[in-house]
Amino acid sequence: MRFQLLGPLCIADDEHAVVLQPSKPTSLLATLLIHSGRVISADYLLHTVWDTDPPATARAALQSCVLRLRRLFAKYQIAHDTIESVPGGYRMRMDARTLDLARFRELVSSADLTADHATAARLLRQALSLWQGPPLSNVASQTLHRDEVPRLTEERLSALERLCDIELEQGRCRHALNEVWEAARQHPERERFSEQLIEALYRTGRQTEALVEFEAVRERLKEEFGVDPGAPLQRLHLAILRGENLSAPHSMIRGAAVTPLEPASSEAVAGTAAPRRPNRDTGPFRSVPADSSRPVRCGHEATSLAPPALGPISCFTGRAEQLESLGEVLSGRGPQGNLVVVSGAPGIGKTALALQAAHMNRHAFPGGSVVLRMTRGDGRPLSDSEVRAQVPPGWYGNGRRLLILDDAVSAEQIRPLILAPTEGTTIITSRCRLSGLAATHGSLVYRLDVLHEEEAGLLLANLLGAPRVAQEKDAVRALAHLCGYLPLSLRIAAARLTTRPHLTITDCTQWLSENLLPRLRLPDEPHVSVLRVLESALLRLGPELRESFAALAGQAPGGSVPGTASAPEGVLEQLSEAGFLEDGPPAPYRIHSLLRLYARQYSQEDRGNRAPPPA
Question: Counting beta carbons within 10 angstroms of the beta carbon of residue 316, is it exposed (0 to 12), middle (13 to 18) or buried (19 or more)?
Fold first, then answer.
């Protein structure tokens, strides 16, 4: 017997499927299956089963729900201990043989790892065939439909996008047309599906229909969101008007139109004027001449765009002390060893500092430098083999080298990758403190905080121009304070002002203050969004930690956490390790203003009606 989540929740074998009726035990089972292998606290289970405030007898009722599920399992000859009672909660251990979600993820990961397009397409079709409709359609829990169903749907749509990219890459445009037509209609907010549909129409000889489809997309985006189509879709439109051959291998337009498998690191955006998307096979940059224009591979997709060079971060501001100290380590002048950890809260500028220091000391690494992403776009960690697959061929050459492991999740994930002292230096960026590395490897640790008020003002001056800033000094200070002195927020606000030269800083600050988090985003770069970054970071935590953080933020109106009386010391330590709290014993813990604002929004009683992060 196996469980199916990707559609109505049911118990199935090779011949029959039993669809469970909406009930509290069904909501409980769905929660345990979604978080398979993890201990789910009783508090969180109460929250998902009852949605609103549970009754006084809810804990006893929860045990009754577990008993009813075990009786159901016995009826279908499922082992009694499939639901494990553990201290503080319950757990179910599922694998690809017993849970369709686990099988789906296994197939998608296998497709990502293979270099053969036909095999990847076959695996993705197998994965998508597991979907039997909207997930959890017979589950009553509003909490699961709000928090988990969108994530599951995103995984399916990403796999479908990937499959259509392969079909287009292989010239199977009619197959891609069949795959993408319905998706573009059902998900008009995803420009990539519209882009694939328009390209498939054009390449099957239906140029007029492709142009009509583009105009429809443009009108819809303008009417619903007040934005123009993104740059890839506009480039595709121009290529169609010119009658260009999009089937040519490594076409400039085809490469520009392809959406990468992973979004650019928000930390890199926090330090660059023009965010760049990473290359899954070679990392965000590799040691090639800056003027190189030869085609490279981006995952399984082709692009003729040159990989980003190891260049300086545009308008990099502040961090002078850290840059000087890092320079001593990278150049080999200091005694600190060859391992550096740069940690801090989401959007604080960790990747920007690492790249800036790498550029300033590039001559110390004749063997080259490379950045390896350690996580997927949804925050899940990459496997060791997936990380190593990003290393460019020939990088293991002669000479001292620099390896940057970006957005690491744990010390265990990166220990096998650290360069030996004789090979070069390793820089790790992470939201976690990774204190275990300091104990086992003697790493040098930089814990980044927000910019000082003067540094934030200087960053805005560098981005907007000194004359414009000088005209509204008070407004600049107000904008920096509103953005919490967070580099990512400041750069997003500056980008809005830069592209609107007639907008005053005062008016921009007022507009942002009315709905701060949703408006701190770039319409043409959906992943460059403070709300998305914070939401992605929070979803990396377990359910219990998420709820604890939301509760703590509500008790810290001034940013200072009351202390261990507000939460167990272990919880505070875990939140601090994950980058959600700063300082700590003997000093009070602190919560950054934007994190506090997001947590309050997350913890509102009516957050089931909260709009998702803008795309």
Answer: buried
